Each structure stands twice: as structure tokens, then as C-alpha cells.
TrEMBL record, chain A:
InterPro entries: DCAF7-like, WD40/YVTN_repeat-like_dom_sf, WD40_repeat_CS, WD40_repeat_dom_sf, WD40_rpt. Signal peptide: none annotated. It comes from Ensete ventricosum (Abyssinian banana). This is Anaphase-promoting complex subunit 4 WD40 domain-containing protein. Pfam families: WD40. WD repeats lie at residues 166-206, 255-297. Keywords: Acetylation, Repeat, WD repeat. The keyword Signal does not apply.
TrEMBL record, chain B:
It is found in: Nucleus. InterPro entries: bHLH-TF_ACT-like_plant, bHLH_dom, HLH_DNA-bd_sf, MYC/MYB_N. SUPFAM superfamilies: HLH, helix-loop-helix DNA-binding domain. This is BHLH domain-containing protein. The lineage of its organism: Eukaryota, Viridiplantae, Streptophyta, Embryophyta, Tracheophyta. It comes from the Eukaryota. One of its GO terms (cellular component) is nucleus. Residues 568-617 form the BHLH domain. Gene3D superfamilies: Helix-loop-helix DNA-binding domain (4.10.280.10). It comes from Ensete ventricosum. The keyword DNA repair does not apply. Belongs to the bHLH protein family. Keywords: Activator, Nucleus, Transcription, Transcription regulation.
Length: 341, 769
């Protein structure tokens, strides 16, 4: 295949996969028990500005330190996928993708097959593109999608039916993240972070609004190790805003050491205070948030990151493997790199 | 001596050059800033102030690799095994690493950490057990002595560290007495015991628990076989005490090791704030005193802050001696180690007694570095010595000198060091402020400073990110070279730069295999451990480097910020265009299904066919409408569809009807439809347009047709017959074509339909054509 592992000139510990296409969407498999004894595995979604796109599955062999493409599990995908996610349970063969609608793919021994197409736009005849989705790891029946039509849709993926659809924001919804089985948050072009509880669909809580009115919030990450914290990024901003949901309105920290806009954020899967961010400056930064009690003592200049990786091109995507927390994957141009933490 | 005076920055000194033990604790907790717990721990709030978040650090006998990659290691640990490792040290029970809450640990982690605790305890035991056994005859008596001592001064605990027989030169747990709070009292017999008996029993139980945990490591089945206590029963202080059992110190290392090496007691105040370099177990006890005697070290600790009191130390010693006659054997046992100690210690005059215990070099340094600061000894110290309360004046002369020596550093530091100095000073100022000790720390015992230097190197270097950044960037770079010497030197260089100065004698003799072995030993018990193991391994080769301000800051690589992200989220031109085209194709196909085509499916052909077909239909409509009278029912029969559609149009309130008229109706009557169509188009009289618009009671008629005499009059007349009252009439004739616009009002409610009006007008027009 096109796969080639090479050591980056910048860093001998970054492992590069050259994809034939530009890559945007990326997902780590939660599986730790694949045949190659817990090797990190990635699904990569191409970004080609037309209908025909690809999703490729590659594994990384930690002994040989090389990538291995799994062509049998790769498949054609309509439009670029805006997000990919494996089923939260390690042994499930399902992979979800979002583009014009939500699709579930079955990655079986015979290759990848489409399992279901979840599209609630049949009535309108026009499908509002999905900007993102999140698979509820505590309640894997649930996937929440966010759409430019200002709504979030909660799917029951087992029934393949809409559980509920909420008009979540005043403008396009750009990202969505689950906190609890019935609680999710979303960010939007209207500049707000809102939390929804499916048990009370009438209300939502705005926990943050971007300082300049209507500065779109693009990405959202909820800290799975400590649900108090979530992080969001703004359009054309080098800042990562860290929020404490118990103290709405005021961020607990604003991480602003990127030299250009931030494109992606990911919390450390198992540590409560570490987050990685990546941006147009080609850097992936790992931050340690100050302990809560010390939060007030943060120097006015703000928090410095602990570690940095320099990719040499703008980084569009970032994923931190939950199954292998020592690996972070970044995507830039048509390259995917695995970084050791 | 000259060499020493050349050291302009002799902050700290290592008095002992003995190789660090590889067997000593692998994991050390270093309390740093507090984080509030979110748990349901009831006592959490009480401990709020004391709550320390623990940073787990691997020291592993000062493995060079670890050292040189230390920045990375901290991170990986904290991101992955922080909770685990904290839990592992039992510190969850201490509730100080409050950042980790039990609820956040998943069951596997829990289990994992348990096993790690046990494996660690077990390791600690290896050296201890045999030692323990050998002391059995004296054990009971020793404990009683310890108990009596600690109870007398009412401190929380006492530990006697003595030289391990198996590992000469290593101080290990010999015995101890726990005198602190007890959470759960498990009585094996329901007998009322005296306080001292309770204490002894408790201490014994704690030891049993420790042993059972350790034993459980090698035998899962007999885990906790006989311990009358379970880990859940322990107070924080007891956990601390228990964890202490796992520690070992080489001579000069750690507080006990230092005390023994210098043969001088050390009084550490505010131990919980102490840099772990000084006191690695600084978790709970606020005051710790280490008194070297009987070839070992007696460590006493209390949760109270107690200022140094030499009398108390003397008192303890003498009190102990009074009781200790039967322990001669132990003394003799440990004497070989004492002899051996001399070799390991760099300062030759260590045996000269307390007064001379500071090496000569140091005196030199002191004298060489008198500065203005000397006159103002209350100035801030440039490194974290804040935690020591003044030592006695008796020993303070040299200490003060040393101190000045330290104080002057900010002045004498080289330029390239200034940043370090600044950040450290800054940090210290904070610490000073927090401690409120201010000038009090002007005297201190320098031995403390070097306590546990090996751990301290790590901890110290981590004490602030800036520091770690500066001192380890070089070191890390050196790692890939895999050359031991350069690595060591660079690392040392980094460390020295980083203010830990004179660790010249630091022995970094550990090698990789030993490291791997150690880790493997530690982690051998659990499957999950594998991940940690490889986790540790890979951390040597981290992709990341320590961030530093201004370090190689690239600007944006692209002119449009967030280009791809925006394309994904908002700039969907490509997307909507694609969808638009797709929709278009669908519509074309729908159209094609309605229009008879010549079999061509390209869009142009479909459009052509549709145009032709539409024209045809329009003509048919016109023909049917205008020619009903003439054509009779023939057309209707032939083209029912068209007729119906046409009539549909009249239902609307606003109606526009245009058509191209027939040219010769007689011909049209005679010929078939195809021909009629032809003739309509070729009509020599030109086109006829009649438009009738009805808006409420107003009717607008627009008409275009070939002019003839009286046509205008007839038109108005026919309108009048339909109860239309012309309001305004505009007409013009160009090239034999009449263009007429008539605005009229309906006279009655008997509304003529637009169709009727139109037909009537068409009749008028065609009458004499």
C-alpha cells in the first residue's frame, strides 16, 4: 500500500503514515485485544471536496514501529467524513461516520459493510450536513449528532430511529459531547456552550458564551476523567477555553500559547488535568491544568504547556487513544502521525 | 579547596558519595499544590489546607534514563497512572493526593493499584524480612524502647532505621511504634488493654498488615492471611506509617541516611512542605526528627509543628539509652557498616563528631563567598529552604555561613543562569510567603538540604515546570546518543545549572538492564502492568519535548486560519454545489419522464424536447380555447388532457394566458393536428395575444393582434356586453398590429369569468380576420 513508516526528521519518535488523500476525521479503536497484542488502530477519513471519499483502517505495530494498512476494512464513503468513532465497547465491530448523514459500518472479517444509514431528513428532502457526533460510551445505544440546521439529534442506534431531536442553538451546531448517559453539551456558531439533559428537554443550560458576541465555538471536549471540566475552541482563536461546569460563565483557564488558531483538542483519557491541543502553528501542546485549589494562583500570563511536539505543518486533527494513553495521533495534510506521549 | 572555591554557586552539597541503592523505593510521592477533592471523603474538608496533590515520580534508584527523560516521565505518569500510582502508595488513604478520587478509578485500575501496592511492599520486604528475623531477640525490647520514647514525648510515630544485613550500607525499617490516631480498633480479645499495650498491639498489627500485603504479592491465595487489620481500617497517619516500612535509604540519602552519614540529628519542620529532595515522604508528618545512634537512625514524627529543641533530642537519646542496654548486640552488628560508611562518604572528617561534620571544602566555600547579604541574613533564600526552622545556635555558626553562601547566589550567578534563578527565587518568595517563616529560616542544617538527593534531583527538578524545562532539555537530547558518559555529564550539567549545584558526587551508575529488571520486578504481578511497563519504556522515546517560552515558535503555516476545520464545519460550497447538481439531475430525470423524447437523455436534448412539447401544448390550449366553436368536440375528444389542464387555469384569480394563434382556421379544420401545428406557427397574420387579468372588480385586458377596421370598437362593445365598463383605453398601431390595453370595471356582481371574456374577445378578433 501507500503506507510507509518513516521517522520524521524533526523527531525520531513520531511515526508517520502517508495517506493517499488528505485526512481529516480520525478515530482510535478502543480495542486493546486485537491480534497484534494491543496495537493502536486508527480509522482515517479522507477529505476530498467531492462525493467520493474513503475511510481507511490502519494499525500500528509497536514492535516493528510501522503502520499496516487494512485494506479489507477500508471502504468508500460518501462525502468527507466530519467525524469517525468506533463503538465505545472494545469488542464491537461497529464504526460510525458522519457526513451528510450518520452511518454505521460493520467491520467484519469479510470487510467493511454499511450497517445502517441514519438520516432524519427524508421529510424535508434536504439533508443538513452533520458537523460532528459523539457516541455515548455509558449508553452505547445513543449517538448524538450536531447539524448546521441548529439541531442536535439523538439516535437510538439499535433501533435505528431518532430518539429525540432538539433545536439546540440559534445557529449552526458545530460539536457535541456526551457527559453522562443522558447529558450532553454542544457548541455552536451562536457562541454558546449549552448542556442538555434528555430527562428535561425543555431546558438547556448555557455554561459559557464567547466573549465577542457570536464568535463561533468550533470544538468541544468533555473531560471523561473529571466531568467537571470541558474545553472548547473558538473560530480564528489561539485559545483553548477550559470550563468548569459548576462555575459557568467564567473559564477556569484559557490556554493561549499556540501561535496560531487551534484546530483540535483532546483530554488525556485517564488523567483529570491533562489536555492536548493542536493548531495551525503545527504544534501539539500538552498542558497540565493547575489543581483546582491553586487555580486562583495562576499567574496573569497564564498557563504554560508542559510539552510540545512540532509537526511542521498545520495540524487539523488530534486524537488521544483511550486504549493506549501513551499514544496521540495527529493529522496534517495527507499525513497521520502517532506521537508518544 | 581551590576547586571548591571556584564554585560560584554551591547551593547544595552532597556529603555522601556512596552509590545509591537500586533497591530503594521506586515510587515516591511528592506533594505539590493542593487540589480539592470532589469525593465524598468526609475528612477532606478538614484536610483542605494540608491537601496535597501528589505527583508521582519514579526514582528507581536514580536510573539515568529516567532522570534524563524526566520531563516526559512525569507527564506520562500523571496522564496515565497518576491515580493508580497514588493509590498504590496508599495515599488515597492519606487523602492528600486529593486530586484522585476513588470514584474516578475504574475497577481494573483499582485492582491494579492494589497489586502494585503489594508488589512494592513486597520489594520493601525482601531486604527487611531477614533483617527483621535476625532482630527477633531484641525486637521486642527495641520496640518497647521506641514505644516508651515516642509516648514520652507524645509524638505520632517512631521508626528505627538500621543497617540491613543483606544490603550493607542500606538503612531499612527495623522497628517502629505508632502512637497516632487509630481509626478502627479491631480487638482480637475483648480485654481492656492499657494504652501502651494498645499502641504496641496496633504497631504489631500494622506490621502484620504490611507483611500480609507483601506476602499476598507472591501468593494471591493467601493474601492477607492473618492480618487483623485490613487496609480499610487505617487512618491516614497509619497509612503513612505503613508506607514508611517500604523505604530504604543509603547512607547520606534521605533524611535518615543523611542523619547517619553526618552522625548528627536532623530536625525537619514543616515536612509536609519540604521539597521531596529533602524529605521524600513528606506527606503527613509536620515535624520529623532523625537521630543517629546505635548504628541506626531513630526517626520520630508528629503531625504537630514543633520547633527544634536540642534538649528534646538529647532527652530522647538519653532516655533511649537508659532503656537500651540489651541492645549491645545490635550495636556491634552495625559497626561494620559504620566502618564501611567511611569509605562511602566523601568528606573524610565525618567521624570527627558533630562540630566538624561539615566538610572542609564547605568551609572554604563559605569563607570565599562572603557578600553583602551576610549583613542581612533575613534575605530570601534562593531555594526552598523555607521549610526548616532554625537549628540550634550551637551549630549555627557554620550553618549561617553556609547560608550566606547560599544567599549570595543570586548575585554571583552567571548570566545564563539568571532565568533559572529568577524563577526559583520567584517560586521561593511565594513559598516564603505561604510559610510565614520569613527570616526564621536563616539558620538551618545543611544536611537536610541534601537529604535524599537522588530523589531530590528528580523532585527538585520537577518542582517547577520552568525549571524542568531548563535543566532537562539538554539532557533529553542526549538520550538518543545512548552514550552513557555524555548523558551523565549533560544531565549533571543540567542539574547543576538548575541550582542543585554541587551534586558532583552523584552516582548515576544505574544501567538499563537494571532498570528494566527493577521495573519488571515492581510490575510483575498484574496483566495491566504490562501497559505500564511499556508505557514507561516508551516514555524514553517520547515524541514531545519540554515546552519553553519562545522556543522555536512557528507561526501559522497557512494564511487562512482553521482552513480545513472551517471547510468541514461551515464552508460547504463544495458540498452544497454537489448537492445542488445532484438535485438538478433528479429533476431532469423527473422532467424526462413527463416529456416524450427521442430517446436522448442528455440535458440539452431533454430541454429541447421539453420546449417543443410545451409549445405544442400551448398551441393546443389556444386552439381548444379559441376554436371550441369551430372545432366542436373533435379536439376535446382527441386531446382531453390538454383541455382539462387549460380549464384548470381559469380557476385562478389571476390568470395569464398567452398563446400563438392559429393562422388559418379553415385549414386547421381540414388538416390533422400535426399540420395544424405547422400552420399555427406559420400564420401570415402574425401572432395574437390576449391577456385578461381580473383583480377584484377591475379587469385589465391586453390585446395584440393584426389591425383591422372597427376592431377597437367591436372589442369595446363586446366587453360592454359582458358588463365591463371601460375606464381607460390605450391603443396604438404599429406595422399593422394593434396593441390595446383596456382597463375596465365590472358593472355587476354577475361576474364574467376571465375565460369568457377572453373567448369573447378572441371571437371578435377572429371574426373578420
Amino acid at each position: 500500500m501507500e503506507s510507509s513508516t518513516q521517522e520524521s526528521p524533526l523527531n525520531s519518535n513520531a511515526f508517520t503514515f502517508d495517506s493517499p488523500h488528505p485526512v481529516y476525521a480520525m478515530a482510535f479503536s478502543p480495542s486493546t485485544s486485537s491480534s497484534a497484542a494491543s496495537s493502536p488502530r486508527l480509522a482515517l477519513g479522507s477529505f476530498i471536496e467531492e462525493y467520493g471519499n474513503r475511510v481507511d483502517v490502519v494499525s500500528f505495530d509497536e514492535d516493528a514501529l510501522s503502520f499496516r494498512a487494512e485494506p479489507a476494512l477500508s471502504f468508500d464513503h460518501p462525502y468527507p467524513s466530519t467525524k469517525l468513532m468506533f463503538h465505545p465497547h472494545p469488542h464491537s465491530p461497529l464504526l460510525a461516520s458522519a457526513s451528510d448523514c450518520l452511518r454505521l459500518w460493520f467491520l467484519g472479517p469479510d470487510g467493511a459493510k454499511i450497517r445502517s444509514v441514519l438520516d432524519n431528513s427524508k421529510s424535508s428532502g434536504y439533508c443538513a450536513p452533520l458537523t460532528s457526533f459523539d457516541w455515548n460510551d455509558a449508553e452505547p445505544r445513543r449517538i448524538g449528532t450536531s447539524s448546521i440546521d441548529t439541531t442536535c439529534t439523538i439516535w437510538d442506534v439499535e433501533r435505528g430511529a431518532v430518539e429525540t431531536q432538539l433545536i439546540a442553538h440559534d445557529k449552526e451546531v458545530y460539536d457535541i459531547a456526551w457527559g453522562e448517559p443522558a447529558v450532553f453539551a454542544s457548541v455552536s456558531a451562536d457562541g454558546s456552550v449549552r448542556i442538555f439533559d434528555l430527562r428535561d428537554k425543555e431546558h438547556s443550560t448555557i455554561i459559557y458564551e464567547s466573549p465577542l458576541p457570536d464568535t463561533p465555538l468550533l470544538r468541544l471536549a468533555w473531560n471523561k476523567a473529571n466531568l467537571r471540566y470541558m474545553a472548547t475552541t473558538m473560530m480564528d482563536s489561539n485559545r483553548v477555553v477550559v470550563l468548569d461546569i459548576r462555575a459557568p460563565a467564567t473559564p477556569v483557564a484559557e490556554l493561549q500559547r499556540h501561535c496560531a488558531s487551534v484546530n483540535a483538542i483532546a483530554w488525556a483519557p485517564k488523567a483529570a488535568r491533562h489536555i492536548c491541543s493542536a493548531g495551525d502553528d503545527g504544534q501539539a501542546l500538552i498542558w497540565e491544568l493547575p489543581a483546582a485549589a491553586a487555580a486562583g494562583t495562576v499567574s496573569p500570563e497564564g498557563i504554560d504547556p508542559m510539552l510540545v511536539y512540532t509537526a511542521g505543518a498545520e495540524i487539523n486533527q488530534l486524537q488521544w487513544s483511550a486504549a493506549h494513553p501513551d499514544w496521540i495521533a495527529i493529522a496534517f495534510a495527507n499525513k497521520v502521525q502517532l506521537l508518544r506521549v | 579547596m581551590a576547586a571548591c572555591s571556584a564554585h560560584s554557586r554551591p547551593r547544595l552539597r552532597v556529603l555522601d558519595s556512596s552509590p545509591p541503592s537500586h533497591a530503594h523505593s521506586l515510587l515516591v510521592l511528592r506533594p505539590v499544590l493542593a487540589e480539592q477533592p470532589t469525593t465524598e471523603h468526609s475528612n477532606v474538608d478538614e484536610k483542605r489546607e494540608d491537601a496535597h496533590c501528589a505527583q508521582v515520580i519514579i526514582t528507581a534508584g536514580v536510573q539515568r534514563k529516567l532522570l534524563s527523560n524526566f520531563d516526559t516521565l512525569t507527564l506520562t505518569l500523571s496522564s496515565h497512572t497518576l491515580q493508580t500510582a497514588i493509590d498504590l502508595l496508599g495515599c488515597r488513604r492519606l487523602s492528600l493526593p486529593a486530586l484522585v478520587t476513588l470514584t474516578e478509578l475504574t475497577p481494573p485500575q483499582y485492582n491494579f493499584s492494589y497489586q502494585l501496592v503489594r508488589s512494592r511492599l513486597c520489594r520493601g520486604m525482601e531486604a527487611d524480612l531477614e533483617f527483621h528475623e535476625e532482630l527477633i531477640p531484641e525486637k521486642h525490647h527495641l520496640r518497647k524502647q521506641i514505644a516508651a520514647t515516642v509516648r514520652k514525648i507524645q509524638w505520632s510515630y517512631a521508626i528505627f532505621w538500621s543497617i540491613s544485613t543483606r544490603q550493607p550500607g542500606v538503612l531499612a525499617w527495623s522497628d517502629g511504634y505508632y502512637n497516632g490516631d487509630i481509626k478502627t480498633r479491631k480487638m482480637t480479645q475483648p480485654i481492656e488493654l492499657k494504652a501502651d499495650q494498645i499502641g504496641l498491639q496496633r504497631s504489631e498489627q500494622l506490621r502484620e498488615l504490611y507483611e500480609s500485603l507483601s506476602a499476598g504479592d507472591s501468593n494471591q491465595q493467601t493474601r492477607r492471611p492473618s492480618a487483623s487489620l485490613s487496609p480499610e481500617d487505617l487512618t491516614d497517619a497509619e497509612w503513612y506509617y505503613l508506607v514508611c516500612m517500604t523505604f530504604k535509604f543509603t547512607l547520606g540519602q534521605g533524611l535518615p541516611g543523611k542523619a547517619l552519614a553526618n552522625d548528627q540529628h536532623i530536625w525537619l519542620n514543616n515536612a509536609q512542605f519540604a521539597d521531596s529532595k529533602i524529605f521524600s515522604r513528606s506527606l503527613l508528618a509536620k515535624t520529623v526528627v532523625c537521630i543517629p545512634f546505635m548504628g541506626g537512625v531513630l526517626e520520630l514524627g508528629t503531625t504537630e509543628v514543633i520547633l527544634e529543641d536540642v534538649d528534646l533530642v538529647k532527652q530522647i537519646t538519653s532516655f533511649f539509652w537508659e532503656l537500651s542496654n540489651p541492645i549491645c548486640s545490635e550495636q556491634s552488628m552495625s559497626s561494620p557498616q559504620l566502618a564501611e560508611r567511611g569509605e562511602g562518604i566523601r568528606c573524610p572528617d565525618i567521624d570527627n563528631g558533630i562540630d566538624n561534620s561539615i566538610p572542609l571544602e564547605e568551609h572554604n566555600l563559605i569563607t570565599d563567598h562572603r557578600t553583602p547579604l551576610e549583613s542581612d541574613p533575613t534575605t530570601h533564600f534562593p531555594f526552598p529552604i523555607h521549610s526548616y526552622l532554625p537549628t540550634e545556635q550551637t551549630e549555627s555558626v557554620k550553618v549561617e555561613e553556609l547560608h550566606q553562601n547560599i544567599c549570595e547566589e543570586p548575585d554571583s550567578c552567571s548570566p545564563d543562569d539568571s532565568s533559572n534563578e529568577c524563577c526559583l527565587t520567584h517560586q521561593l518568595e511565594d513559598l516564603f510567603g505561604a510559610d510565614g517563616l520569613n527570616g526564621m529560616s536563616r539558620t538551618h542544617s545543611m544536611q537536610l538540604v541534601d537529604d535524599e538527593f537522588s530523589n531530590g534531583l528528580l523532585h527538585g527538578s520537577l518542582s517547577s515546570n520552568e525549571f524542568a524545562t531548563m535543566s532537562f532539555v539538554n539532557a533529553q537530547r542526549a538520550v538518543p546518543s545512548a552514550t552513557r558518559e555524555p548523558t551523565r555529564h549533560q544531565m549533571l550539567g543540567g542539574l547543576q545549572e538548575g541550582n542543585y549545584g554541587k551534586h558532583i558526587s552523584l552516582d548515576l551508575d544505574g544501567d538499563d538492564s537494571h532498570y528494566a529488571e527493577t521495573v519488571a520486578t515492581i510490575l510483575r504481578t498484574s496483566k495491566q502492568v504490562n501497559s505500564v511497563l511499556c508505557f514507561l519504556k516508551v516514555s524514553f522515546r517520547s515524541s514531545f519535548v519540554v515546552w519553553r517560552r519562545g522556543f522555536n515558535t512557528p507561526k501559522s503555516f497557512i494564511s487562512t486560519p482553521q482552513k480545513l476545520l472551517k471547510k468541514i464545519l461551515m464552508d460547504r460550497a463544495w458540498w452544497s454545489e454537489r448537492r445542488r447538481r445532484e438535485k438538478l439531475n433528479e429533476k431532469f430525470l423527473a422532467l424526462r419522464s413527463l416529456v416524450p423524447t427521442g430517446g436522448k437523455i442528455d440535458k440539452a436534448s431533454i430541454l429541447d424536447d421539453t420546449t417543443q412539447y410545451l409549445k405544442h401544448l400551448e398551441r393546443r390550449v389556444q386552439e381548444l380555447e379559441s376554436g371550441t366553436a369551430v372545432l366542436g368536440t373533435t379536439d376535446r375528444r382527441k386531446n382531453p388532457d390538454v383541455a382539462e389542464r387549460t380549464s384548470d387555469n381559469y380557476l385562478g384569480k389571476e390568470i395569464t394566458n398567452e398563446w400563438k394563434p392559429l393562422g388559418n382556421k379553415r385549414k386547421a379544420c381540414d388538416i390533422d393536428e400535426g399540420e395544424a401545428e405547422h400552420h399555427f406557427v406559420l400564420s401570415k397574420h402574425g401572432p395574437v395575444h390576449v391577456t385578461v387579468r381580473v383583480k377584484e372588480r377591475e379587469v385589465l385586458v391586453e390585446l395584440r393582434c393584426p389591425w383591422r377596421e372597427c376592431l377597437l370598437l367591436e372589442v369595446v362593445e363586446s366587453m360592454s356586453n359582458l358588463h365591463l365598463d371601460p375606464i381607460s383605453v390605450q391603443s396604438s398601431t404599429v406595422d399593422g398590429m394593434l396593441a390595446l390595453t383596456v382597463k375596465s370595471k365590472l358593472r355587476s356582481s354577475n361576474v364574467a369569468s376571465p375565460g369568457m371574456i377572453k373567448r369573447s374577445l378572441q371571437r371578435v378578433i377572429s371574426k373578420c380576420l
